[in-house]
Prior knowledge:
The protein is an alpha+beta fold. It has helices at 8-14, 17-23, 67-75, 79-85, 99-139, 144-166, 169-180; strands spanning 5-6, 29-31, 34-37, 49-52, 55-58, 64-65, 96-97. β4 (49-52) and β5 form a beta hairpin. The longest helix has 41 residues, at 99-139. The two termini are 30 Å apart. The model has no long low-confidence stretch (mean pLDDT 86).
Amino acid sequence: MSNTQFDISAIKELHDIVQVIKNSGVELKKRGSRYVGNCPFHRDEVPSFVVYENRFYCFGCHERGDVLDFLMKLHGCDFKTALAHLGIDNLQNVPVVTGQEYEKRKIKRELVRKFRQWEVDYSTELGLMIRVGHKALKTLSFDDDLRKWLSDQIPVWEYRLEILATRNDRLKFELWRSVNGSAEV
């Protein structure tokens, strides 16, 4: 079996996901380095749909993906039809990658997928720790050392959550390294 594959990443890079989503009727507002809006995949009272770099994620329904995933989900269509929505009717015009380059990209995609999953999981964990921490400070009695530790820790958690919500991937990766040490993604 050949490792020759169409260079789908080239297609994704050529089509700005923010513009594709806006052109699909979703109102997005810029928040830091990301765009937020109401999710088109479920009834959304509070904006939970986030678009950043070349992907989207909904904190409400947990849909996620790239520009092609968005179009397939929005229109309920297959890959070829999603390409047609981008104006690509003929795959002969799509570049191909082969052999070693294909394997490198496959490994990189898997590492990026794992990192994005960590990003979502850690954001959820931080949000929970912040809420519980604030509630505990208001309702529970602690000794002074524990109260001071929790009072000092909450701003650290809030800052980390702010990094995950608004900062670039370099800072997110630095956060990952500080949290995980030398562990693999």
